[in-house]
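Issue 218. Parser rejects a valid record. Input:
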Amino acid sequence: MLRRLTGYFVLYLCGVAVVIRLTVRDALPWLAPVYYATPFPVIAAALLVAAVLLYGRAGRRLVSWLAISALCMGVAGLVVPAGYHRCDRPAGALRVFTWNMGYGGGGWQAESDQAAGVDADLVLLVEAG
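Output the parser choked on:
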């Protein structure tokens, strides 16, 4: 009983993730973590987990559809780009560069020289000591 309920719960979460991923995406700030935490390969893995949990408890048709859906989501994860989009920069826009210093692992002088070589109006150094 618990196994079947868990399987249906995972299936429900997959449905919510797919709906968010295909509709609102990260437009709503309170749903953005769901969007970024559930790329297509994660949804595919969760569908396979649901199929395993529901195997023998639900009909073979449902489990077959879950396996096919997992395959489709896995292929979509390979085909659909990750989501890096470059936007046009309006004239006079401020250019900001963020540099993670890595606690100075590469040497403080070398790290700061690399950051200084960037053409930006403002350079933000993180973990700069």
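Fixed in the parser; the record now loads. The chain has five helices and two strands.
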